Here is the input.
Amino acid sequence: MDDRWLSVDEIVAYLGVSRDTVYNWIATRGMPAHRVGRLWKFKKEAVDTWVQSGGADAVEGGTSPEGDVHETRGSGGHEPAKAPTKPRGGKSK
Here is the structure.
C-alpha cells in the first residue's frame, strides 16, 4: 500500500510546497520523478531520501522559504518542466 506512486498534488501536499517548486526541483535539482504519459509520478521513499540528502536545500536564496509559498498559477513566467500547450493548426509561417 505505501509503495504506490504519488501524483504531483500528493507530493505537493506531503512536502508543503507549491506545484511550481516541485516542477522547478524536477528540472533543476534532480528531484526523483518519473514521467507517465503527461503526468509526473513520485515514490515517497525516493523523495524522502532526496530531501534528506540535501536535494531541496538552498531554495531561492537559501534561507527563506518565500519561493515555496507562492501559489499563483501561470504568473511568474517560469514553469520549466511543463510543456507549453499550443492549439494545433491555425497560422503557419
Notes: The longest strand covers residues 39-43.
